[in-house]
């Protein structure tokens, strides 16, 4: 089959690879009908996530039709012919983490847990197409994919919603939603979101759905800010505006009640010297992540507020504003999304028309043009917000 | 040399004990063991892989067996690397299942054999046992050792870096991985 593979930093390529096979008895094979390129794929493309290997199949946002199930799959839960969306973290449903709905921290699904444990102190779940640190599972930017523990993870789609309406239940919609949910939004809250990429857009939509009085988008890409403005959100362009001052001006001097970092480890900074400082440190690996958005969110949040982090960090950050965080009673909440926890309730919100996930799609490409999609998305060409790929 | 490791399994102590008590199942999750065969009652015959593709064999006897609580064994005279092991099963607080505490002891011989054994265990000898227990937990909680394209041989994951790429296996690789 054809699959989009990681070759080396800044190079992915669609090549022929073997078809996936049943490796564990509870596996299923899914014929992929739609897949997507995620912002976190760019961290892999850029070479900031260790343990990538040449030939790794990329992609962790995918859906399709079940074409084969292993002998151990509970047929009451999944059968050949089912149409499914596959959540990006692989859960087992049986360990303490999964039972507590902390699916992305599953204790059983990462064969390389020992390596992850060295890096993070405790291991994390397996993730499709997301380095060997998260297990070395082939991803879904391909014609077929092997789905692990297939009777507990995928969400069956039994209505006539289109692929584009439900595909993002695999990652970015639940991720954005969890970012807003962690904010514990109450009536009257002002929520600021750093990053107006797809996850940031869904964090904004979710904040509105959960009752935020005002939502503010912070980015430096004009078309992304325009996309947020079109939804009625306030916008701040950090390339020409001091973010903290602008946030004070929009909140009667209080600062946002809740702040969401939907940027993560490869942030850029409006002040060139600060940006250069972190780029230099990251380049020589004395800091793995550039945490501008996180620093700014902490400094900007009102005292007693919540800073919710859904942008991906991989290692260590420098100059973490611990003083601001501690002295002003801030709460820091975070996590890779526990997708399985949110898929069904969010499917219902899509069915009720409360959230329209298709609004972020700007590009539709065949699988053969996936590398071009990475280029459009990474370099923000042609107004690229979200690329959906059809095998 | 003593190796210790521990894990928590979301199953009651009786069930976790019962799984471990079938010593012949240890090779399904312990990387270095090829086979454990019960020879008579309390006696077992163990086969383990050694460096350079060789294998070592020895006989052992169960020295303690307290249902739901504890199992212990030790090698009999004649083992090249005399060894013993014990595992305790303790109810985890808050109804979280069972805490499993494992202690393995090896009397490392001198000379070339001792050197080879030390190399085999590497700089962090407990790491292998940690991984063994992780797989023990996987088998009890999910039914089997989870395999990925990068680590298709399941229990040999640690020894495989750099791994197979995270792409599906060829037919030959598939046959070999499941052998």
Describe this structure in words.
- The complex is a heterodimer of chains A (391) and B (179).
- Chain A has 391 residues and is α/β, with parallel strands linked by helices.
- Chain A is built from 13 helices and 18 strands.
- In chain A, strands 3, 5, 6, 9, 10, 17 and 18 form a seven-stranded mixed beta sheet that branches.
- In chain A, strand 1 (2-8) and strand 2 (11-16) form a beta hairpin.
- In chain A, helix 5 (172-181) crosses helix 6 (198-209) and helix 5 (172-181) crosses helix 12 (339-351).
- Chain A is globular, with a radius of gyration of 20 Å.
- Chain B has helices spanning 13-21, 111-121, 125-142, 171-178, and strands spanning 2-9, 33-40, 43-49, 55-66, 70-75, 83-91, 98-106.
- Chain B has a seven-stranded antiparallel beta sheet with strand order 1-7-6-5-4-3-2, covered by helices on one side.
- The model of chain B has no long low-confidence stretch (mean pLDDT 90).
- Chain B has four helices and seven strands.
- Chain B has 179 residues and is an alpha+beta fold.
- At the A-B interface, strand 4 and helix 3 of A face helix 3 and helix 4 of B.
List the helices and strands and how they pair.
The complex is a heterodimer of chains A (391) and B (179).
Chain A: E1 2-8, E2 11-16, E3 28-36, H1 39-45, E4 56-57, E5 62-69, E6 83-86, E7 89-90, H2 96-99, H3 113-120, E8 126-127, E9 144-147, E10 155-156, H4 163-166, H5 172-181, E11 190-194, H6 198-209, E12 214-219, H7 222-229, E13 234-237, H8 243-250, E14 258-261, H9 272-283, H10 292-300, E15 306-309, H11 322-327, E16 331-334, H12 339-351, E17 363-366, H13 370-378, E18 387-390
Parallel strand pairs in A: 11-12, 11-14, 12-13, 14-15, 15-16, 17-18
Antiparallel strand pairs in A: 1-2, 1-4, 3-5, 3-9, 3-18, 5-6, 6-10, 7-8
Chain B: E1 2-9, H1 13-21, E2 33-40, E3 43-49, E4 55-66, E5 70-75, E6 83-91, E7 98-106, H2 111-121, H3 125-142, H4 171-178
Antiparallel strand pairs in B: 1-7, 2-3, 3-4, 4-5, 5-6, 6-7
